[in-house]
Every structure is written in C-alpha cells, then in structure tokens.
Write a structure and sequence with these properties.
Blueprint: H1 12-19, H2 26-34, H3 43-54, H4 57-61, H5 65-69, H6 76-98, H7 106-117, E1 124-130, E2 136-144, H8 154-163, E3 168-174, H9 184-198, E4 203-211, E5 214-217, H10 218-221
Parallel strand pairs: 3-4
Antiparallel strand pairs: 1-2, 1-3, 4-5
Length: 224
C-alpha cells in the first residue's frame, strides 16, 4: 500500500510535523529522505531494506557509492544527496562551535566529532584550534595512519597552533576497531603534545576518541 493511503498520523511527513523529528524511527526518517519507493515497495519499505542490508544509519552513511547504488531504487543522485546532507550537518555543527564557548556545548562537540570521524576506515588525528574564548578558529586533519596506528608529530602540531594564533586546542582521533578505550600510545602522545604546547602557552583542553557510536573524553577520565 502506498504511504499516501496510510492514516495521516502514521505517515512519516505528517508524523514529523505533528510530533517532531525525534518521534520518528530511523526507517521513517530515511523514508522522508528517499521521498519515493519503487514498484511494490513504499519509501518506508525501501528504507527498512537499506537498514537491514547495511545494519545501521552509521554504516549506511559510510557505505561506498558502488554498494549503495547496487540496491534497487538507489542511484548516484541519491548517494550524492546523502553525502550532501551529512556534510551540511557537519558544517552546521561546526558553525555552532565557532559562535560560542565550546566548553558550554559538550553535546555539540561530541556530535560533530562523531560525524567527522566515525565512518573513517583509517585512523585519523584531528585538532580543533580555539581562541581565548574557546571558540573554534579552525579544524584540521593533521595526520592519517593505518587501520591501527597514526604517526603524530608534536612539532607540526605546535606549528599549526601558532599559525592559527590558538590559545587552546582539543584533539580527537578515531579507533576503526570500534573500541573507545585509550591505548598506552594514546596516553603517551597526549602527554607529549600537552608538554610541547605548554611551551608556547597553548592549553590542551581535551582529547577525544571516537569509536563506533561511543566518544571517550580524556578530560572526563582524568587522563589530562
């Protein structure tokens, strides 16, 4: 049955307008993005098929173009639209972090880092450079490594902090393994970076590890 024949309170669009986006399931939200289904399947049916095939929204977002387009009813246009939605979400969160004290928006920081790092297949090390009011000056991907290891060079990190005239910095990297626990190497490089940046009066406020849907804070763990 076409969605247009469903009771109005069960249709994803009407449900969103009446109750808000948070009231919708992953499949319903994805169905609104898809807009239409295919012969024999509503947009919600197609959304459920995508989630069953790829597992979760996170895994769907990380899917390669070829795998996404292999699903009947999908194509390059839909893949491009999905990537555009993700990038707009990242930019909207980054704008939020640039307009106020980042320490007053811990949820936005975590959400931004999740969007930035959780789908990466290699380990990536990024820095958020902050001004004296803890507003984001720049976000830079500084180093990229193998699946399990990244080489981080303190001298380069100090140079980038001075280039941006940063007063503070927040580091983040991902664990493609899906395990958010910090390794001994993670703790060691954080300590080395903190000491190096202290010499130029730049504070390290936190270091996050993103792994799957989890985000671990060194500051909250007392590791800074």
């Amino acid at each position: 049955m076409s969605i247009s024949h469903w009771p109005s309170h069960e249709r994803p669009r009407e449900k969103l307008l009446e109750r808000g986006a948070a009231a919708l399931s992953d499949a319903e939200l994805l169905a609104i993005f898809l807009r239409t289904g295919v012969v024999g399947k509503s947009a919600v049916d197609l959304a459920r098929e995508l989630l069953n095939r790829f597992g979760t929204l996170t895994q769907l977002f990380a899917t390669r173009e070829a795998d996404f387009c292999a699903v009947h009813g999908m194509g390059q246009a839909k893949f491009v639209q999905l990537q555009a939605v993700l990038e707009m979400s990242r930019r909207a969160l980054q704008e939020q972090l640039q307009t106020g004290d980042i320490l007053n928006a811990p949820r936005a920081v975590r959400d931004y880092l999740q969007l930035l790092l959780r789908t990466r297949q290699q380990e990536v090390f990024v820095a958020l450079f902050l001004d004296t009011q803890h507003r984001v000056l720049a976000v830079e991907e500084l180093f990229q490594g193998t699946l399990s290891q990244t080489s981080v060079y303190p001298r380069e990190v100090v140079k980038r902090a001075l280039t941006h005239n940063a007063a503070a910095v927040i580091f983040a990297h991902n664990h493609p393994s899906g395990i958010a626990e910090p390794s001994h190497a993670d703790e060691l490089i954080t300590s080395i970076l903190k000491q190096a940046l202290a010499l130029v009066e730049v504070r390290v406020l936190d270091h996050f590890i993103v792994a799957g849907g989890a985000t671990l804070s060194f500051a909250e763990r007392g590791l800074l």
